[in-house]
Amino acid sequence: MAQLRIGTCSWKYDSWRGLVYSQDQKINYLKEYSQAYDTVEIDQWFRSLRDLNKIILPRKDVVINYKESVTPGFKFTVKLPDSITLTHIHRAENQYIPNNHFLSHDLLEEFVASIKQLHKNLGPLMFQFEYLNKEKIKSQFEFQGLMREFAAKLRNEFQFAIEIRNPDYLNETYFQFLRDNKFGHVFLHGYNMPPVFDVYKKFKDYIKGYTVIRLHGPDRQGIETRAKGEWNKIIDPKDAELKKIVYMVRELLERKIDIYLNVNNYYEGSAPLTIQKIKKLLNEVDYELK
Fold first, then answer.
1. C-alpha dihedral over 284, 37, 205, 286, to 10 degrees?
2. What is the 3-state secondary structure (H, E, C) of 94-135?
3. CA max distance for the chain
4. What's the CA gap between 126 and 162, in Å, rounded?
5. Range of the domain at 125
6. Angle of helix 271-284 versus helix 239-254 axis, rounded to 10
7. Closest Cα to residue 11, out of 139, 34, 1?
């Protein structure tokens, strides 16, 4: 039976007290979070490349703390370090240096070893790629070729998923490549990508096993300005969109696809309140994707 896990992108927000957290001054955010939700996205290990000679990997004490804070069935989705997914390193204005760690198996193995205490609590490990212009990757064909070679050496014990920021890559060739190489697709809603329900409608037959849906908004800076650091109210409601997303989720479950639905504060202004709306709609909505 397919499973839907709904959680947030990151979790340590003081303004979620009363929504998710207690008023305890010595709060263990993740422990209380895991009593409310069954998954969360870890993005703090993504920004790992600060200079050419030093890669920042997860600290052992932090990993152990995360393991001890959650229930046995809890799952983390993890954004893999950008030291693996960046083709180039930005050193100065309009100056980029090739990243020697790009698609490094050795670095990936070092990373997964650093989080070994979490292995039983891991959902998909996500490769998040920036927008790839032709100076970074010449074509979709080249990207898929590089990833195909990389996939041949990946360990089967982990689930891997790919998030791209190139809308023109989202075609039949790309989804066939994902399926053939056993990558999950990360449906990204926001960042100038097409709506996830439109992408799903076109390519749903290629989605197998599991998928990740990440709900981000179109205007991160604008919603940050309006929220003023208080992520406890809906600022930019997207009820019509949510109905379509919920329909998509219900259809994926009917097709026996496991789903990790990660909601960001930037989507509507408060990820916990958006999740409340999603759960309510899951029990109510009768909506057709059009």
1. 0
2. CEEEECCCCCCHHHHHHHHHHCHHHHHHEEEEEEECCCCCCC
3. 54
4. 6
5. 4-284
6. 60
7. 34
Total number of domains constituting the chain: 1
CA atoms within 13 A on the CB side of 102: 15
284: nearest Cα among 253, 254, 246, 255: 246
Domain annotation covers residue 290: no
Segment 129-160, tens digit of pLDDT: 999 999 999 999 999 999 999 999 998 999 99
The Cβ-side half-sphere exposure at 97, using a 13 Å CA radius, reads 11
Tokens at 197, concatenated:
């329900």
Q: Is residue 28 part of a domain?
A: yes
175, 206 Cβ separation under 8 angstroms: yes
pLDDT of residue 106: 96
Domain of 180: which CATH number?
Answer: 3.20.20.410
**Distance of alpha carbon 80 from alpha carbon 45, whole angstroms:** 7
Residue 60 has phi, psi (to 5 degrees) of: -60, -40
- Average pLDDT value over all residues in the chain: 94
Distance, in Å, from the CA atom of 37 to the CA atom of 117, rounded to the nearest integer, reads: 20
Q: Is residue 161 part of a domain?
A: yes
DSSP codes joined into one string, 207-255: --SEEEEEE--S-HHHHHHHHTT--SS-SS--HHHHHHHHHHHHHHHHT
pLDDT of residue 288: 60
Q: How many CB atoms lie within 10 A of CB 146?
A: 14
Among 198, 249, 231, CA closest to 9: 231
Output the pLDDT for position 25.
Answer: 80
pLDDT category, 53, cuts 50, 70, 90? low
